[in-house]
Amino acid sequence: MNYLGVLLILVALGLFATEIFTSAYALFALAGLVALILGLLLTLQTSVSAVAFYMLTILMLLFIALGVFFIVRRVSESRKLHVATGKEELIGRLAQVRSALYPTGKVFIDGELWNARIASGEAETGEQVLITGVDGLVLTVRKQ
Predict the structure, then answer these.
(1) φ, ψ dihedrals at 94, nearest 5°
(2) Rounded to two decimals, what is the model's pTM?
(3) What is the pLDDT of residue 86?
(4) DSSP-assigned letters across all residues of the chain
(5) Measuring CA to CA, which residue among 42, 43, 41, 72 is closest to residue 58?
(6) Mean pLDDT, to the nearest integer, of 21-42?
(7) b/e burial code for range 30-46 (CB count within 10 A of at least 16 → b)
(8) Beta carbons of 143 and 130 less than 8 angstroms apart
(9) Under CATH, to which class is 87-143 assigned?
(10) Domain residue spans in the chain?
C-alpha cells in the first residue's frame, strides 16, 4: 500500500471539510480535489492493472467534472433570482396610496403602512404607485 497516497486522500478530506466551514472561494476545495486525484492515482496505481487504472481515473475525473458543472450551474441560477426578503424586495412592486402624496404621504403594501415620497407629481388616495426605492423607512414611489 502506498502511504503517501493514503496521506494525500486524508489531506483532501481535511481540505474539503475546511472549505465547508470557510469562505475561501473554492480554493480549499480545488486544493482538495488535486490532493484527492493524486492520492487516488498513487494508491490505485500499485494495486490494479493498467487498463483498470486508466478506466478508474477517467471515470473519477468524469464524475468530478459533472459535479463541478452542476454546482456551478446551480450557483449561477441562484445569482439570477430576485431578493426575496428585506426592504429590497419591495422595489418594483405596487402599493396603494392611503394618504395623498403631495409629495409625501402614506402607502399600503403587504399589510403595512409605509411613509412614502413621490418622485414627481402627486398621487391621490386609492391610486396605485410603483415603488422605485427605499431610503430608511421612506419608500420612493412614482405613478405607474
Answers:
(1) -95, 140
(2) 0.47
(3) 75
(4) --HHHHHHHHHHHHHHHHHHHS-STTHHHHHHHHHHHHHHHHHHHTTS-HHHHHHHHHHHHHHHHHHHHHHHHHHHHHHHSPP-SSGGGGTT-EEEEEE-BSSEEEEEETTEEEEEEESSS-B-TT-EEEEEEEETTEEEEEE-
(5) 41
(6) 82
(7) ebbbebbbbbbbbbbee
(8) yes
(9) mainly beta
(10) 3-80, 87-143
